[in-house]
Design a protein that fits this description.
This protein has strands spanning 3-6, 9-12, 14-19, 25-31, 34-40, 46-52, 59-67, 70-77, 81-87. The protein has 96 residues and is an all-beta fold. The strands form three sheets. It has a four-stranded antiparallel β-sheet with strand order 3-4-5-6, with no helix packed on it. The chain has one domain (3-87). Mean pLDDT is 82; it is low at 92-96.
Amino acid sequence: MREICSNNGCSPAGYAYFPSAHGGFYLGGSIGPDALILKFDENDSLLWQKRFSISPQSELVTQLVEYGGRLAGIVTVDAIWSYCFGITRIRKAWNG
């Protein structure tokens, strides 16, 4: 588990790790009740992050996979149900 910090403090939220085809790695987890994906370069510097949610319950990115320039994964909600997501143009630098 990796500690992720924000302006609101730190939250031990890293859960899903996946190496990037372009160097570095992705880390999925959560921050507060929201799902969170972070992209780090090969020097462990944060390149971008994406926080998202479709539910008022606690969400956690539990699986990540990169294929053909896309990132996909699974989010588990309150350890009861899950949903899949896909992101295109993953080289874009997201904020927040």
